[in-house]
Amino acid sequence: MMKKKNIMGILTLVSLITLALLGFTILSQGINFSASLVQLSIVNLVLLVVLAGIYLVNNHCETKPMTKKIIWALGGGLVIFGAIVAFNLIDFKSGWNYLMGVGLLFVTLVQMQILDWEISKGILKILGLLTLLANIYMIAYFMFELTPESMGSILDIAVLVSAFAFLVGLIFYVPKNKKAQ
């Protein structure tokens, strides 16, 4: 019987392939593409982010059971909310901003689990803090629909800081099983 982590990995790959096929179909239709394909692509993208996050947390982190439940619940809620926004059950313009904000919250939670930020020390703690602060700014930007032009420039910087700090943090991170050796 397949383990849950294998199933999550397979579902993640299926979601990625489906998203690529939807994207190819949309591109092949040219300017007269179907709006329903775009809606399906949005739902599929949200599903891909959630499945990838859950897969990473389940397979590459030592996480408390309660944190895993929170990640699963937030991921499930994010997929449902993504479908609601994609199919215009609420206003797409404002719903899209909230979807981005909640999605970034999910990604932030996954990033902090991967970096094991709760018990990290030194440079890893600082890199985790930079990632967290940059992500909090991005969440606020989308949730509160900040629009002044200077805020957009800060958003660009926040995206770069978050990505850079997280990737460098991954380089410095030593998993617990390697620390024991």
- State the order of secondary-structure elements, H for helix, E for strand: HHHHHHH
* Content of β-strand: under 5%
Q: Structural class, from secondary structure content? A: mainly alpha
State the major sheet.
none
Q: Kindly report how far apart the N and C termini lie.
A: 32 Å
The coarse silhouette is globular
Averaged pLDDT, please? 90
Describe the protein.
This protein is mainly alpha-helical and 181 residues long. It is built from seven helices and no strands. The longest helix is centred in the N-terminal third of the chain and has 26 residues, at 35-60. The two termini are 32 Å apart.
Describe the secondary structure blueprint for this structure.
Elements: H1 4-28, H2 35-60, H3 65-86, H4 92-114, H5 123-143, H6 149-172, H7 176-179
Helix pairs in contact: 1-2, 2-3, 2-4, 3-4, 4-5, 5-6
Produce a short descriptive summary.
With 181 residues, this protein is an all-alpha fold. The chain has helices at 4-28, 35-60, 65-86, 92-114, 123-143, 149-172, 176-179.
Essential attributes:
7 helices, globular, mainly alpha
